[in-house]
Amino acid sequence: MQASKIRQGYPIGCKVTLRGERMWEFFERLITIAVPRIRDFRGLSAKSFDGRGNYSMGVREQIIFPEIDYDKVDRVRGLDITITTTAKSDEEGRALLAAFDFPFRK
Fold this sequence. Notes:
Helices cover 24% and strands 9% of the residues. By secondary structure, the chain is an alpha+beta fold. The model has no long low-confidence stretch (mean pLDDT 92). The protein has a single domain, classed as Ribosomal protein L5 (50s Ribosomal Protein L5, Chain: A, 2-Layer Sandwich), CATH 3.30.1440. It starts with 19 loop residues before the first helix and ends in a 7-residue tail after the last helix. The chain has a two-stranded antiparallel ribbon. The protein is globular and about 45 Å long.
C-alpha cells in the first residue's frame, strides 16, 4: 500500500446518484459538451450495456468537463459513469439512448 500512497482512513473514491433536473442537465452536458472533448473521439461503444439496458463508460480525464478549472487540478483523474435506464434489455437501452442522440460509434 505504501507504493500507491493509499493510507488507511483516506477517501479513495465517491459515488454520486443524480435524479430529476440535475440528472437531465448532466446528461445533456455529457453528450453535447464533455464527450466530444475527449481526445481522438470517434464515438462511444454500443457494446457497453450490462444485459439489462444500463450503459457504463469510463472517462480517462475529468477535465473534459468545462466546469473543472484546469489550474486547480492537482492531477488528471478518470471516472466511471453508469446510465441506469428503465429498459428491460440492451436493445431497448440502446434505442432509448439513441433517441437522445447519444454519440454511439458508427
